[in-house]
UniProtKB/TrEMBL annotation:
This is GrpE protein homolog. It is found in: Cytoplasm; Mitochondrion matrix. GO terms for biological process: protein folding. GO terms for cellular component: cytosol; mitochondrial matrix. Essential component of the PAM complex, a complex required for the translocation of transit peptide-containing proteins from the inner membrane into the mitochondrial matrix in an ATP-dependent manner. The lineage of its organism: Eukaryota, Metazoa, Ecdysozoa, Nematoda, Chromadorea. It comes from Brugia timori.
Length: 70
């Protein structure tokens, strides 16, 4: 598994795994649902699937749940 991860890093494949509470970025994230939450509007509540970039281009966006506007 370590060899696979290092091979991906050598080829500039980088994981997109936004932390809960981080700002929603439509260029790197895909909002699957919008839920009411106690945090700031338009922030990530949860990650359903990690995304990946390759050489600065989005290969697959991270699938996220986003907080609803108040």
């Amino acid at each position: 598994m370590r060899q696979l991860k290092s091979a991906l890093e050598r080829n500039k494949v980088i994981e997109i795994a936004p932390a809960p509470g981080s700002k929603f970025d439509p260029h790197q994230h895909q909002a699957i649902s919008v839920v009411p939450a106690d945090q700031e509007p338009n922030t990530v509540v949860g990650v359903l699937q990690k995304g990946y970039t390759i050489a600065e281009r989005v290969l697959r966006p991270a699938l996220v749940t986003v907080s609803a506007p108040k």
